[in-house]
């Protein structure tokens, strides 16, 4: 029985990314594991109705013959959930009032089902994806989501040989995993590309879509630097080569037979290929896999700041030359950033003299530095460009990024706000927001606490109004607020209405 996590009607209403690793549990094929569809090694090339000779297109046969022996199908044995129903879903009791006569019946029904499965034999399912050898002694790469719940991993080579493998290390943040065969080989393997592909370059993928191992597809690089919301370090290559479920973990090659990316996700309304696929760049793969091979995990640098994008209103209020950089909303106490003197309102524009376009790039660059190393941070404070040497710490387990981006606030002109002193005296409390006022339009909410305006602390509504008047008299287009709520601390730029 084929099961979709979304109905065809719902899927037609919106495109969604779907995990491409196929999973079959208890005879049920789960086609959508989440909104992000992970892929395995198959990457398809754009097809043409015209003969190759007429258009002068290259033949990929020589490349395929060279690289296909290094690509494998990955099959994973996973244990099914002990207390789940036949659809893999936990049985839940309907929402009944306490003491309802049916409450006892539903509890007994649920507990009987749990008991029968708990006391019975363990049940297993199979997941499948793709992978490729990177060394002659049997190290290979795949996606983390292919093997993260593995009880047993087996590989099938291009010539049909079956091999047992073990997991050396996994990195959920980059969705990469390193495996090793139990037999040392030798095996055919492929190298990582030393040059990043350009948009428009041809690429070839080999993988295991829908269990059809050894499948080859081709296309071009459609875009680079894609952020699809799958994690803190998104930097995907977009390709138009057809890839499908089971392609997860498979390689994308350039015309030299070098790996330029690992296929991970597709953008699709139905779970099938529509010509938009995403691959992890080879430079990221090489770095992560190297760390997994050395220590079984990836150590990432940690700065200890909450950051947000610089909007035009924020740039105007802080007298910044443009909207590039990452605005520090909070420098957490006891972190490298705080110890180095960084503070809220600073705008980080460079790391080791490399320009930082925004928060995402800052997070990635800090994460690429090993803990304990020192980086040069260039930032703007009060219109002046300053530098700080920061010795990075290790990324705490509970953190999701080296520099934690916070949701970008909507630009906010500060009128239409009813203010009162906060209970603890630290800031001004927003007690009401006029739904027709500019404050509401810009995202200010009841319960927000305004800590600072224009870099100056405020504790009374009168101080807030005075600071606003002063900024307006000075001819400023906007003023910056530092705002605190249950979600954290952020900056909000308040643009004055035009006369």
- What's the number of domains? 4
Gyration radius over CA: 27 Å
Q: How much of the sequence is in beta strands?
A: 35-45%
CATH class placement of the largest domain: Mainly Beta
How does this structure look, described?
This protein has about 500 residues and is α+β, with helices and mostly antiparallel strands. It has four domains: about 1-75 and about 125-295, Thrombin, subunit H, CATH 2.40.10; about 80-120, no CATH class; about 300-405, Roll (Pdz3 Domain); about 415-495, Pdz3 Domain (Roll). It is about 20% helix and about 35% strand. It is built from eleven helices and 32 strands. Strands 19, 20, 21, 22, 23, 24 and 26 form a seven-stranded mixed β-sheet that branches. A hairpin with a 2-residue loop joins strand 31 (about 480-485) and strand 32. The protein is elongated and about 80 Å long. Mean pLDDT is about 80; it is low at about 1-20, about 20-55, about 80-90 and about 400-415.
Give the helices and strands, then pairings.
Layout lengths: L1 E2 L4 H6 L2 E4 L2 E4 L2 E3 L6 E2 L13 H4 L5 H7 L3 E9 L23 H17 L4 E10 L5 E4 L1 H4 L2 E7 L5 E10 L4 E6 L20 E6 L7 E12 L9 E4 L11 E3 L5 E10 L8 E5 H14 L5 E2 L2 E5 L2 H6 L8 E6 L4 H4 L7 E5 L2 E2 L3 H9 L6 E8 L2 E8 L1 E2 L9 E2 L11 E5 L6 E6 L4 H4 L7 E5 L2 E2 L3 H13 L4 E8 L2 E8 L4
Parallel strand pairs: 1-4, 19-26
Antiparallel strand pairs: 2-16, 3-4, 3-7, 5-16, 6-7, 6-9, 7-8, 8-11, 9-10, 10-11, 12-13, 12-15, 13-14, 14-17, 15-16, 16-17, 18-25, 19-20, 20-21, 21-22, 21-23, 23-24, 27-28, 28-29, 29-30, 29-31, 31-32
